[in-house]
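Researcher: Checking consistency across runs. Here is Polyprenyl synthetase again:
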Amino acid sequence: MPQSVPFDAWLRAELDTVESALSAWVPGTAPAGLGQAMRYGVLDGGKRLRPLLVLAAAQAVGGHREASLRAACAVELIHAYSLVHDDMPCMDNDVLRRGKPTVHVQFGEAQAMLAGDAMQALAFEVLTPDDGVPAALQAKLCSLLARSAGHAGMAGGQAIDLASVGVPLNEQALRDMHHRKTGALLQGSVLMGAACGDLPPAAWSALADYGDAVGLAFQVVDDILDVTQASETLGKTAGKDMDNNKPTYVSILGLPAARAHAEELRNKAQAALARSGIANVERLKVLADKVVERDN
């Protein structure tokens, strides 16, 4: 989409495009009600920040459109599957997500587990069409997504999170946990978009730093909102981390310092874009601002 399109118009158009593509690719016909559970877990909800980061980064570098749209949907499928599993009684045991009952509440625990499994597999199916995307790019996108979601990224971070209930963590340990649990997939979204174009190493490194800062900022703000907003605003259960005695940026730094840290991370993200040498980064700038300024 041309860079001259105003951000709000770009946002609405891309959200519609992502929603339409997800609706087309998530099969309602999967057997025994599985498709219904999958569609419930991924469609009609969420901020779609990760797909927007993919698309904004790809457009900034003049990247392959079909590949970037598939990457945007794939990363959202991974994110949605992780929420389905995280909400289950064996993990965070939550009953509200995106303003509606969680998947295991609506469909039962076994179906929720299978829906998450199927969404994870579908993400890689979406990334590997028979034609339309060069094979080397398919492989690169699969590698970036797998590393972001696996033991070194999101799954590893969730393991640390579960092991840290009631355990005092210092800021460095908390940062490492959230770099994996939340930050890795957000950074991976930026890099998947960037991979759809052709960048010199310095620009790639700058976008990686941008994604890292945005990913951590997202978690810091999440921790702030958990203690400052109502469940109705968040669309999920407020105060859950405190009730479960989980370490957060607010519990470790305090609320004023956590807010200051979010601003520091926003500045780091903007500085990384400035040194990237990429001309068309305005949408990435706005997305960083929206991460810090959001209220849900």
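Researcher: Does this match what you'd expect to see?
Model: One thing to look at in this run: The radius of gyration is 18 Å.
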